[in-house]
Amino acid sequence: MFEKSLADLIRGIRANKKGEEDYIASCLEEITTEIKSNDIDIKAVALQKLTYLNMLGYDMSWASFHVVEVMSSQKFQYKRIGYLAAAQSFNKDTDVLMLCTNLIKKDLTSNKMYETALALNGLSQIVTPDLARDLIDDLLRMMNHSQPYIRKRVVVLLYKVFLQYPEALIMAYPKLKEKLEDEHTSVVIATVSVICELATHNPRNYLPLVPQLYNILSNCSNNWLSIKIVKLFALLAPEEPRLAKKILPAFGLLLEGTSATSFAYEILNSMIKSGLIKQANQALISLCVEKLKEFIIDRDANLRYLGLSALSELVVIFPKVIGAFTDIVLERLDDIDLTIRRKALDLIPSMVTKPTLIPIVDKLMSYLIKDEDEWFNNINIFTDKEYRSCIVNNILNICSKDKYANISNFQWYICTLCNISFVENIYNVDNVANQLMDVCIRLKDTPLRKFIMEKMIELLKNKVIFEKKFIKAGNSNVLYVASYLLGEFRNSIDIENVEDLLFSLTSSEAKELSDIVQNNYIIAILKIYIYWLLKSDFNESSIDAFKQITTMIMQKLQLFMNNSGIEVQDRANLVLEILNKIYEQYDPINDVDKDLIKSIDSLFDGELKPVAIKAQKMVPVPNELDLDHVINEEAQEMLNEIESSFADESRYFWMSRVINPKQIKEPTKQELREARKKREQSKKDNLFYLDDEDDEKPQNSFYEPDIDEIPIVKFTYDFGKINIILI
Amino acid sequence: MIQAVYIFNNQGKPRLIADYRNLDVQKSQEFLKETYNLIKIRKDNQCNFIEGSKLLGGANTKIIYRHYATLYFVFVVDSSESELGILDLIQVLVESLDKCFENVCELDIVFKCDQVHYILDEIISGGMVLETKYNEVVYAFNEQSKIK
Fold first, then answer.
1. Please, what are the domains in chain B?
2. In the UniProt record, which is one GO cellular component term (chain A) (predicted)?
């Protein structure tokens, strides 16, 4: 029987693309037998194949004993296979690890350098606390090995040993310090890497190494090493305030002098991340800003990305520095790389000030209104819904920040919000509508309100928003806001526009809108109609206009009554009835009748006010109320949870009009009797009222039924015969 | 530290998995898939860093990769590694492969998967960087291949 080699196996898998799993299953079966073979050649090749299959997702933990067998082979190439398999498949729970101590010890002390290296490398993956303790003496001795190839391996392995067996650190520290002076760069690199990792856990301990590290940095020509030392300084600097004074001038010189971008970037990044830059002088800060600018406009996408990342951390330290970057960050909004565009977008909020807000938002808007077939930089922003939505959110956030503190021109902002309502392919149209509502309700200034009303009428009349795509995407929901505001602030509408507006509100397109919008439409129609009646001076000649408009609206309300939603129907019906009554009973020329209209108008009285969620706290606590008294001990925990989850929210509530209940006079017995009589009389006159005289049961019997009288019907199911279709 | 090194092709087929976190085989495959899914949607003109995959370890974990013809070379690292340094290190790995296999192509890596591991072991040991010069790597690899 000829066993497959690794190459045969791979070739076989490639040839059996359709039946790959079956093929591998049969190979695994062969491997299971081969691996038990007494012939080390067969065993090793079987393990090699198994290790390959492990990469494809097949388990090999069952073969751990055979792995040890191959590891202990005399042949170097087999030993290699064994160690690779161990590194790949062993973990701390692998029980055969206990058998390995002597084997690894033997390999470590082998007189063949590459065998020693093999053991060191394997150990770096499989070291356990036990192995670490048993082997630490050998490892410490090997730190002085004649070959740098071994020394560097021992040093990096030590970090993994410390993680498993922390006591080893104290034993190894003096030697580790020595290795910083090793004549071989790769050993120094390994040592610095280990100290760098250790310093992330406990930086204070490595401050004594600063002079040595500083020397290495000054005379270093290896890029990787320089980067590691700079990173290490960034970890140490926060622990020792005096370090900044020494290290910052050196960083400045290196930053200016180096031609390696990766090193320059690391210096910048480390200064920012560690906060060292706070102590830098003006010249060094300017140098950093210049370098950062170079990164952000570099041709290499990686540098642009890293530049923006570093900048976003720098603005946390120096918020004003962003001013120097405004233009180049804005340019990055149409970067060829989507990740970079996002990074740039994230920076936008930090660069907004009162004077820059409008140009920034206009720039952001310019991306949103690009056409479907408009491409730039090989990117079609139109299709990237996620990015577009981020832009919209960004605009809303920067404009509404600190209660609209940065907005100097609200007419501009309202126009912008109206424009965003027509932006296609975004997720968050609702946020736009909410913001529009919020800002319009806050603006109480009369000319501004007039302006808002004009804009809302414009929105309502714009046929574009009724296009199918806008209705489907939810953009049309902005009309929810428009119709509501028009109804609520009807007093700011020019009376000449009202008739026209009533036509728009009852246009046939309205039936395409969602139910919640239609609801608002109906109420707006009523409010504006009443307003129109109150404000218009009717005389004999214009009385026809009253009749025409009223009948027109009554007819058009049919539109809403055909809606399948009951709430829409209900409201339409209600308004229709009111109009009907007005049409029949109201004489617009007769001033006395105006009271009827006024009383309807008074239904809509009251002023909307934004109320902060924390407003409740302003209410004084009554003296007799002890809020600290625990009324339910178990609930306390629950309350804590609720409190913490709401702590950061700042929502706004609209305060509805405050109702001052009039003092209601207590009716006398006489009055009560008369009222009852009247009611009974009207019951009798009403054809549709069912008399319950004969019914002897008390009324609440409906709620407390006699259990025995409930009829019980027995259902039997035979599932065997019925096909149940689950949807 | 380096947490994992992956080589996979444009279709996401693994060509090398070196995971330094001692994961079991299922987790390892899961992480590979996540990495591939994050990378495959990116265009070549995009930057070579991906941050913040929750599955792979959140904000502290970065994916740094290079795309050569049909293969992706991917390093998953934590914040103590330098992004640009790792990009250079990937270059060291690829140059070493190129020297060891003489004009390396995907097929070399497919059929000499174990050798690729041995080359990588000259650059990284247990997630720590061991060597950054490709000539040292090539020399050590060739020397060991000669041993009978």
1. 2-146 (3.30.450.60)
2. endosome membrane
